[in-house]
Design goal:
2 copies of one chain form a homodimer.
Chain A: H1 14-34, H2 64-75, E1 87-88, H3 97-109, H4 120-136, E2 150-154, H5 157-176, E3 185-190, H6 196-203, E4 211-214, H7 226-238, E5 242-249, H8 261-270, E6 274-278, E7 303-306, H9 308-311, E8 319-323, H10 326-333, H11 343-347, H12 366-401, E9 405-407, E10 415-420, H13 431-443, E11 448-454, E12 457-463, H14 471-491
Parallel strand pairs in A: 1-11, 3-4, 3-5, 5-6, 6-7
Antiparallel strand pairs in A: 2-8, 7-8, 9-10, 10-12, 11-12
Chain lengths: 492, 492
């Protein structure tokens, strides 16, 4: 049994809890202090870590200092530093002190709020904060608990999509008269929609061949055409299919494109197709009055999701989902096992969030979003968004001023999609040139960007918006881009 | 734009990060210090919180002290205290200092390890720690990366079940020749299996009428009979169905029952049915050699999951899933969008965990489990399990010594299922009496237990194993049970 004994084994002793936690707080503060010293993208080779760590667990307890030394020596070199101010890849994942404090309280209380009674505060704060957030986005009251809808916090967009798809699937199957009609159900999205929707649709049993990828084009800024959607729906109906759900996006991943919600909503309503809006990235911007128009027509949608864990200063993970008819979610996802039966649930006066999501267990994520909103206030949250967009505008101006470069699509939000102009003789339209440029930038360790292909064109994506990014980082990034481009163009 | 400005808005400033985080560390330490002063089950009424909080977000930032005051005054009264040593309901959700430190580092780094390149350490540590954990459970190497399998951390059992079901579904549909065969697929579990499997099966599109609930009985301790399973499978095959997956449980939720893995495995193999083992609760106990026998026959299974966030000192959320053929998971769940394409993934030398789970985004949970294992060592982890089981044995002895009570089923692990013996004249076999007893105990605020119904019998579940529970809490619990029973029996 080793050396453990009742007296020495106190894994949650408040005094050592406070001591050790403060040591780790200082460790993390030090990490932020020094974060610019690390190469943004990790430079390790596959398998690097197994060479540094034992291949089985220790028998005896190890001191915290040994573990933290290994975190410094073995883990940090293998991190791609998402919190680095020089991280411009994918979409940012905003950490903040407020988000961290919320995570600490969530983890400290460690309650499992599957139903109301299992921790009423976890459920009620979530309902309140979902209404707060919905009001910040000026969602119609049909999406709020204060109205006739409601919201829930998921871990990811895919989870939200799975639940929405299951809800609408089950409603459709009931109307069609049984599960054998599953192969008739069709889901619509654009070729710019996040791939997570295809994955979610397949997960809930929609045959992949029933997923329609509506083609977009450069001419419409890669936004979805309501006419093409209408025609696809009409074709499917003619062929005996049942159009189920249309996913529109505010701020697509490749280029930040915005689908025309109102027009798509009209088509969806006409054919009784569920309209889901994925505002994972750009939803955050819609708290600013000047960007709210991107959500015009949201009242025609059935559900909408956005991710505070991207651009809203909320540490991972946190995805908001609002739905107009929560009963469709709970009809599809609810369960009533004896062990969870209780008076409050029976009364129907309370929300049992287990019936709004995939899992039974759930973390108290609402604390985090609540603290993020209160600690910053709408004023600073808007400042955060506006400041990032101002920096993106500045980067866009750098690109436009240098005639070797071009913007591939107009900037949307804080995402700049640009490239080195291909030379006339380049058969691949500059694909290889720009691929090399991204590689040169990233392998410098001084910044990290990613790429996309839109309309066949290879674009470099500069997503501005980590919590620590300031103007001088953007200035330095542009100098780095120019420097690497210069070298490439000389050697090309 | 409010009062925000570039100079004052620093949402991740290392100095204030450290200061504010330490304030919250002290707040949580104080919570643990005083946790026994709160009623274990919250006594608030539905809607209590909306009466105490504003109905929309503040415009201006608020000081941390105001927020923490609201946590004390508004949130804590609405918590059911899962970390209280007097919490004996459901299954425990172990917090520990080590688990908390791991959560802090995870949230502090806030990396999104969807594929290898997006943070190599997050992927590699997860693979290493899954092998560590697998070895602690003495899983055959066919489940380990060191062998031919592999493991992944999910957030919940339901998520793991969805992924396993989708993998086996897609393999079966491919063999059957198309998605129109979905209505043929059948899933098997017992009437004691966690309801999450029914939910997961429905989520992936298995018609609910194709979910077979194998009946269990008191005589076999509510474990699943291989003969009944065989006969159900044979019946389904005769009727043209395709048996897909059988879920066996180590430590069921109602009574801690253990399904006979080896015998079920033989049946599953014979009919080429996927065997999944759900060891969410009792898997942790199998790190002790004396309990490892419950996993005998695991080599016949295709996948197994267990939850360190229950009984393994790991704060929420953390669910381990091992699978013998990871390629079946990735065949079903993988995606290859341009934006994520990279050399490492193309080389096939690395794991991209986005293809092992539902979501794209993922937290660095491996840090948490790694620190939990190292900080305690196998020695103390076994001590933790054994100590809880010793306390459960003690509670069982209390029950057996008092002739007003009876054990409904033999104790398994640290779960004691007991009841007040019904009087001969009680038509409901003591259901109302025991329901009242649970209510009296819970409403005292001094302890919190839950109930189950097994074989038609209403049982009181005493799940021992919160991190802070010590022998004197179990002694006090029994005194409370006796006191409330005495009052009930006198008034009855």
């Amino acid at each position: 049994m080793g050396s453990a004994s009742k007296n020495t084994f106190l894994p949650l002793d408040p005094v050592s809890f406070a001591d050790e936690s403060k040591t780790v707080v200082d460790f993390i503060a030090d990490y932020y202090e020094n974060i610019e010293k690390y190469p943004v993208q990790s430079t390790v080779e596959p398998g690097y870590l197994s060479a540094r760590l034992p291949d089985s667990a220790p028998y005896c307890p190890e001191p915290l200092e040994d573990i933290l030394k290994d975190v410094s020596d073995c883990i940090i070199p293998g991190l791609t530093h998402w919190q680095s101010p020089n991280f411009f890849a994918y979409f940012q994942a905003n950490a903040s002190t407020a988000g961290f404090l919320g995570e600490m309280l969530c983890s400290g209380f460690n309650v499992v709020g599957f139903n109301w009674i299992s921790s009423p505060a976890a459920t009620e704060l979530e309902s309140i904060v979902m209404d707060w957030m919905g009001k910040l986005l000026m969602l119609p009251s049909s999406f709020l608990f204060a109205g006739t809808g409601g919201g829930v916090l998921h871990g990811s967009t895919c989870e939200a999509a799975v639940c929405v798809l299951a809800a609408t699937r089950d409603k459709a199957l009931e109307e069609l008269g049984g599960w054998e009609h599953m192969t008739k159900l069709v889901v619509y999205a654009s070729d710019q929609t996040h791939f997570t929707f295809q994955k979610a649709a397949k997960l809930v049993g929609i045959p992949p061949s029933n997923f329609r990828l509506i083609e977009t084009s450069f001419s419409t800024g890669f936004s979805m055409s309501p006419e093409i959607v209408r025609s696809a729906i009409e074709d499917d109906i003619k062929s005996g299919f049942v159009p189920l759900l249309l996913c529109a996006t505010i701020g697509t991943t490749p280029t930040g494109a915005v689908d025309p919600i109102r027009e798509l909503g009209k088509v969806a309503m006409e054919f009784k197709v569920w309209l889901h809006i994925d505002a994972a990235y750009a939803g955050s911007a819609c708290i600013c009055p000047e960007f709210r128009h991107y959500l015009d027509g949201v009242e025609l949608a059935n559900s909408i999701s956005m991710n505070p864990h991207k651009w809203f200063l909320t540490n991972m993970d946190c995805c908001c989902l609002w739905i107009k008819e929560p009963n469709l979610l709970t009809d599809s996802l609810s369960s009533d096992p004896e062990i969870l039966r209780n008076k409050a649930s029976r009364s129907k006066e309370v929300v049992d969030y287990k019936d709004w999501q995939i899992a039974l267990s759930r973390r108290f994520r609402a604390l985090k979003l609540w603290i993020v909103i209160r600690r910053h206030g709408l004023a600073n949250l808007m400042y955060h968004i506006r400041n990032d967009i101002a920096m993106a505008k500045c980067f866009e101006a750098f690109v436009r001023k240098d005639e070797r470069f071009e913007m591939v699509v107009p900037r949307k939000f804080a995402l700049v999609c640009f490239r080195l102009k291909p030379k006339a003789e380049e058969e691949d339209e500059g694909r290889e040139l720009n691929r090399k440029l991204v590689e040169a930038i990233n392998s410098s360790g001084r910044a990290f960007m990613s790429h996309a292909v839109a309309g066949g064109i290879y674009v470099i994506r500069c997503a501005i918006g980590t919590t620590l990014t300031q103007q001088h980082h953007v200035d330095d990034l542009w100098k780095l881009v120019q420097e690497k481009a210069q070298t490439l163009l000389i050697n090309n």
